[in-house]
Amino acid sequence: MKETGSEHDESDRLKGMVKPLLEWYDQNKRQLPWRDQGKAYYTWVSEIMLQQTRVEAVKPYFSRFIKELPDVQSLAACPPERLMKLWEGLGYYSRARNMQTAARQIMDIFGGQIPLSYEKLLTLKGIGSYTAAAIASIAGGQCVPAVDGNVLRVVARLNQDPEDVTGQAAKKKAMLLLSGIIPAKAAGDFNQAMMELGALICLPHGQPLCQDCPVRLNCRSWASGRQTDFPVRPKAKERKQEHRTLVFVQDDEATLLQRRPLKGLLAGLYEPLNLEGERDEKELAAMIGQMGLELLQIESLPASRHIFTHKEWQMTAYLARVLSLDSLTKDSPASLAEKSRFVAAPFRQAQYPLPSAFKAYRHVL
Questions:
Q1: pTM summary value
Q2: Which helix (H) or strand (E) covers residue 229, if one does?
Q3: Which residues are tagged catalytic?
Q4: Fold for the domain defined by 240-364
């Protein structure tokens, strides 16, 4: 992509920020379990986990994951249900499935070695331009900018850019500008410094901490006092709300779980009976009887909600005690039998991954 005159001018203006940014990063970077390890696998796993998830939340998941799956070979060979269990609570479970597919690609195509070429990384399942650039620069020293939401926000404020930051045009512009200033001998540190600046100083909500920013003298938004006007985003669409009724059916030893379909939302994970709409106790008692179970007691649980990217579940929940789950018959309602298979799992859920959408009810298990 060829630079226009104005883009060239912007790159020249921003070159002055490189040295103070790297000095600030060297003195202020957070100590993270995947940072400065020199391992492409660590960079890859952490970047996938960090998508849509806060750094502090990722730390314990990363440590547990690496302890059990320390390399590409172990990830490729991991039983899928165990992988989902290790990922349990991080959400967006397709990320883990894609990562395992990519690990198997690495075993088959690259001899078990993660490629450090940006172009080759893009051929792997679940690795887009940002993740490929992060791995290639941090682990491989390749001079390619890694542009995520934090970096887009920083660039938008530096340039006082009126472009919609969620669009592809803004990302392409940022990549072009950063390509003109990223230092060849410190590409990985530069990319991490830009991410760190967005995470610690150029904050996404409220007032950015401009008084602590090492590059404020290069920032047009700071110079004009318009920091909070950027980046420009379209008005968020309202999430679709869905009412769900959850039923935790238990006997003295186990809880009845059903497996979700292998495609779609929370694909392949386990859950209690999860019914559309709001159901009352009488309706649920009849359904449980149709399943061939002898109902002893049913009681309501506190309502809860879970927010996905494009929808929100408003959940009503019940605990249904039955005499024995062993009496579950095969003539369950077709709507359930067609979509799932039932298991009677121990309360502690040692084997079956439960989505974080139901974390309010873990005590029931």
A1: 0.77
A2: none
A3: 47
A4: Nucleoside Triphosphate Pyrophosphohydrolase (3.90.79)
